[in-house]
Automatic annotation (TrEMBL):
GO terms for cellular component: protein-DNA complex. InterPro entries: LysR_HTH_N, LysR_subst-bd, WH-like_DNA-bd_sf, WH_DNA-bd_sf. The keyword Nucleotide-binding does not apply. The lineage of its organism: Bacteria, Bacillati, Actinomycetota, Actinomycetes, Streptosporangiales. Transmembrane segments: none annotated. It comes from Planotetraspora mira. This is LysR family transcriptional regulator. GO terms for molecular function: DNA binding; DNA-binding transcription factor activity. Keywords: DNA-binding, Transcription, Transcription regulation. Belongs to the LysR transcriptional regulatory family. Residues 20-77 form the HTH lysR-type domain. PROSITE patterns: HTH_LYSR.
Amino acid sequence: MGGDTVRVLFVVSAGYDDMVETRELRYFVAVAEELHFGRAAQRLAMAQPPLSRAIQQLERRLGVVLLHRTARAVTLTEAGSVLLREARVVLEAVEAAERRTRRAAADRPGVVLATKAGASSELLSKLLDAYAADPCAVAVEVVLCGPGEPESLLRNGRADVALLHRPYDSTAGFDTEDLHTEQQVVVLPAGHPLANRPHMSMAEVNALTDLPLPRWPRRDGSYPDGPGPQVRDYTQLTQLITLGRACAVMPESLRAQLRDDHAIVPVPDAPAVTTVIAWPPHSRSKAVADLVRTATRL
């Protein structure tokens, strides 16, 4: 389900429909994430007894058990796990709607565009210049983010439009236009024995035990398991490659930002990367529509 889709939950009880409130969902998410009523109450800045009563009322309303409670621990039931997943989507969509509504009412209209720092730099520069030449152009605030963050900013309403990169970013739930597709390369230290190869396969890249692939953070901030170093941005990654601590598979267009102490080897069987411009499907912003039209013309 896309981040901009609001699913309203109903249950039938005593012959009438009763809608779950966003307040109750916020309470439940806090308890489900903390798995401790005391910590959840502190996080919500409320007393524990009313929080416990609210969760019990939610369970009665839905007619299911959401949490297993013992003297030692609180755990999620299967139904609780489902509601946690759905509630996060609903709350994110509500927060996104609030932010976009406030921005639409601002005295000075503008567009917030999110993109990964260092990615699609040439395309972004051309897009901003071409859009600025439009007589109807409004101010564009560019937010440069780490990997995975542009998608999150677009889903939570902090951005109106974003440049995303498939297959690394998910475009589910967004309207998109493809802008550019390119092949990928592996970046190695310049002095590495394989630096002069005409090409490499993904199997060969994965087998480089002396230069493991980096581990990027997931959306929740955790890192996947693996031998590679944890990285947060491209500057950190390129320095690790220079030091001979990692290699990286990345779009060929990033070649222009690398230094002489890096070597580039094409990886023909790596998935192609497509840069897309993405926006919420319900957007009625003329500025967003104009920016998208400018991007597709480029």
